[in-house]
Amino acid sequence: MRREFIVIGSRILTQYLAVFKSFRNVVVHHIPHQYSEEMAQPSTDHPLGLIFKNENKTTDLSEVLQEIQHKYAPKGPDGVSKILVGGDRLTEANCRNIQCAFADGNTNEERLEGMVFKFEDWHAIRVLFEIHYKVFFSGKSGKDHGKLCANMTKLSCDNAQKETHLLQSSSFVMCFNNNCTTFHYRVTPCKSGL
Description:
This protein is mostly helical.
């Protein structure tokens, strides 16, 4: 865990302190893991344009999914490749239900198997904070220095301890970043401004 905090700390320092900004290009921005090589590959984005249908109506959404399947899901010798299709949680659930309704089709394309549905936007950020909270937060660790609960108490972010609210959690992260920067100024003889 010490190595991960070094990576996070170096990111924060090169972002906020002028004396370290020259190192922004050489600092590690992503903590290395077993999938680092695959994740470093560039993604391909394809703007789909507008489809004038109402995603809240089942018939319209099924027509949209069929259009996406036929036009945008790559087809090759091995069959249909999968693409990610995102939306809010309700849209994701509706898309999965429609995909289940088409499960009796004769081909992968008719079964709409070329799409993997996912939720996006602020939902992902909120879920990230929820996972972070579930994994790292324990009310019993309030006196253990360096633990999430102790850090929240030390930084007067007690409201982030009660439940995982996006606003309080993101406020805590910003406060944590600011305190890492302040700590650096107190520990090093650096006289440069921000």
